[in-house]
Specification:
Layout lengths: L1 H13 L2 E8 L7 E5 L4 E9 L5 H5 L3 E5 L2 E2 L10 E6 L10 E6 L6 E9 L7 E7 L4 E6 L10 E4 L2 E2 L2 H4 L1 E5 L3 E6 L4 H4 L1 E9 L3 E12 L7 H36 L2
Parallel strand pairs: 2-8, 9-16
Antiparallel strand pairs: 1-3, 3-6, 4-5, 4-7, 7-8, 10-14, 11-12, 11-15, 13-14, 15-16
The protein binds 2-acetamido-2-deoxy-beta-D-glucopyranose (3 copies).
Length: about 260
């Protein structure tokens, strides 16, 4: 029994030094701080000496802050005993950022917090899309959000989209959900599309696409004509340049002979 007490005393004796982080808003479970874009997060790191140590031994300890492992520069007066950092305004890149505070002389005496920045998907508004028969259609819907939107719901004229029947391809890179069709047919693809992103925190965001399939117009073949004209002009320029270089070469060779 006594040896157990001794062990406990030894262990606590070895951990007389510690640092703690206080924050506004509060630190939640697992050292996570919940916040949103544009907000401010204030962090204060305090060094606490064990009560049995003289106060001077704690008060003079220098503190270091790291953001994702990189040192945060601190003013001289913001390093001893306690040290504050402020994250303002909170941006997308702060999501998942870890802030660590440790003693300068011993980095293993440290504490960390991680930011969880929530933000809604930006899908909204409506768009008129006009697409020619047999050409391709691409509809894009912003789904970048935290918590992430795993798969937004796409509907056409109010019914869930049948991807295979319509020849649709649906991709999602976490930022944009993209619906595409290689060759548009009026009977299959004209109508009102909706992309609905459901966030457990921010609710539902929707973007509407009113797609009209137009007849194929026979376009005047402008591109080949422009390309042809460019070739003619370039050939002329090259002819002039090569002649010019022949002339200059001749003059360079001849000038020393006829000074
Ligand atoms: C740093 O602190 C740890 C934990 O208190 C301790 O085990 C270690 O010996 C210390 N290292 C130095 C160099 O003081
Ligand atoms: C961040 O907060 C959201 C909303 O409370 C939650 O759903 C998500 O699991 C949190 N993420 C992490 C990594 O803690
Ligand atoms: C969707 O509704 C519009 C208007 O009622 C209609 O013209 C179009 O054919 C419909 N689209 C499909 C794919 O059924």
């Amino acid at each position: 029994m006594e040896s157990w007490y001794l062990l406990v005393l030894l262990v606590s004796g070895a951990q007389t030094m510690s640092v703690t982080i206080e924050s506004v808003p509060d630190v939640g479970p697992h050292g996570t701080i919940q916040t949103e874009l544009e907000r401010t997060v204030s962090l204060v790191c305090r060094h606490s000496a064990a009560p049995d140590l003289p106060p001077s031994e704690g008060g003079e300890e220098e503190l270091v802050w790291l953001r994702n492992g990189a040192a945060v520069s601190l003013t001289a007066g913001n390093q001893k005993g306690s040290s504050g950092v402020c994250v303002t305004p909170v941006i997308h890149q702060d999501n998942g950022a870890t802030f660590t505070c440790h003693l300068r002389r011993n980095a293993s005496i440290q504490a960390s917090v991680t930011l969880n920045v929530t933000y809604p998907p930006t899908a909204s508004g409506s768009e008129e899309v006009s697409v020619e028969v047999a050409s391709s259609l691409v509809l894009r819907c912003d789904v970048f959000a935290n918590p992430p939107i795993t798969s937004p719901l796409w509907t056409l004229n109010g019914s869930t989209l049948d991807l295979s029947a319509g020849g649709f391809t649906l991709t999602n890179d976490g930022f944009v959900s993209q619906l595409s069709v290689g060759s548009v047919e009026r009977s299959l693809h004209q109508g009102r599309y909706r992309c609905t992103a459901d966030s457990p925190v921010y609710g539902t965001r929707t973007r509407v696409f009113q797609v009209t399939v137009t007849d194929k117009t026979t376009k005047f073949p402008l591109m080949p004509i422009i390309a042809g004209a460019v070739v003619v002009v370039l050939t002329g320029i090259f002819a002039i340049i090569s002649r010019w270089s022949t002339i200059t070469k001749v003059t360079r060779h001849t000038s020393p002979r006829f000074p």
